[in-house]
Amino acid sequence: MKQQNKWREKIVYFMKDRYGQNDVLNKHILFLSFVSLIIYPFTNYYIFLIISLLLLSYSYFRTLSKNKEARKKENEAYRKKLSPIRFQLLKFKNRDSYRYLKCPNCKQKIRVPKNKGTIRVTCPKCHHEKEMKT
Ligand SMILES: [Zn+2]
Questions:
Q1: How far, in Å, from the CA of 91 to the mean position of ligand 1?
Q2: Are residues 68 and 24 in the same domain?
Q3: pLDDT of res. 1
């Protein structure tokens, strides 16, 4: 029991000032590393094994990095690039219950319930009002 606590303390001390987060970027890096590792035995191309190990190393580098700000920025930049894809997925998921329209004034995307006939929509950004078919 005492030995266990000692190890635990050592690990806590080691991770103290490190990033240590399994953020979205890390999850995707690990997923790609795993996919590359799965592909390798079927193709016998060493490049897949190398890619897998490089991605795994990068993931560990990010987790153990002491530069938390830089890692957060990387993750935010990645999430920003990913957001249009996430929006399309959300749109597809809600395709039966919502319609996505654009405000004619400021081009803001507006989500409205589907099959409610013609309704008066107020843009949340510029407060422009318009009758829209749903
Ligand atoms: Zn608007």
A1: 19
A2: yes
A3: 63
- 60-67 long-range contacts (CB < 8 A, ≥24 apart) are 62/19, 62/25, 62/26, 62/29, 63/18, 63/19, 63/20, 63/21, 63/22, 63/26, 64/18, 64/19, 64/20, 65/18, 65/19, 66/17, 66/18, 66/19, 67/19
Q: Say how many Å lie between the CA of residue 56 and the centre of ligand 1.
A: 45
- Is residue 36 located within the same domain as residue 63? yes
pTM passes above 0.85 = no
Give the end-to-end CA distance of the chain in Å, rounded to a whole number: 65
User: Distance from the CA of 84 to the center of ligand 1, in angstroms?
Assistant: 19
In the predicted model, residues of the chain with pLDDT beneath 70 are 1
* Pairing state between β 98-102 and 109-113: antiparallel
What's the gap in Å between 71 CA and the centre of ligand 1?
Answer: 35
Query: Are 84 and 133 members of one domain?
Result: no
Domain residues for the domain of 111 are 96-134
